[in-house]
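Good morning,

Both structures are done.
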Amino acid sequence: MSSRELSEWAAYYGMEPFGERKADYRAGMVAATIANVNRAQNSKPFKPDDFFPEPRFDEADDDEESWVKQQAMAAMITAAYGGEDRRGG
């Protein structure tokens, strides 16, 4: 897979998440629907993320934490393909 193709897949995943986390979210939507039709009239409505521990997909990571994670992932991918870290320092 080329760097361009990997970037395209990453961009696509950013727009349309897929995989197990997305499947968990779909299951959470079903569970929330069932719980909401059976809840007391004055109680707070359930949300899909009330039914699984992962954060919601539309919640952004903290900017600094996200940057650190991205930098670490890039370093791991570079090392895995025998690349050289040219950041210096």
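Second structure follows.
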Amino acid sequence: MFSPLIRLKDEIEFRLEKEHQEAFNDIKRYLANPPILVPPMKGRDLKLYILALDWTIASMLVQEDDNDIECVIYYLSQILNDVEVRYNAIVKLCLCLYYSCTKLKYFINSFNVQVLSHNNVIKFMLSKSILHNKSGPLH
């Protein structure tokens, strides 16, 4: 909603339209009431979202409430060191899972946990040369 305002040139007159004001008010409301972390509820499964990027790993532990809305229990993130930055994507993802399980062990020991990631691990593993022989992929 604000992107047209960002691209304004000096010769164009600035005009705050109604939709811009509404978007600004929405942003103010959101920032004034940030999401609140909730404690886990017994008897419900947890979801652990993991993410590995070039320079950082991150995870988020959530649980669905009575209305099937995911509520955040805990956030984690860590910047990778010089050696870890050179890891391939799958190793970084494994590092993220290990880091998350280590830090969140008191939460996840008592619950079933579903681990979710945006990476397609099977596709990545099948594309690696170790799984191919000279005549092509193993069948």
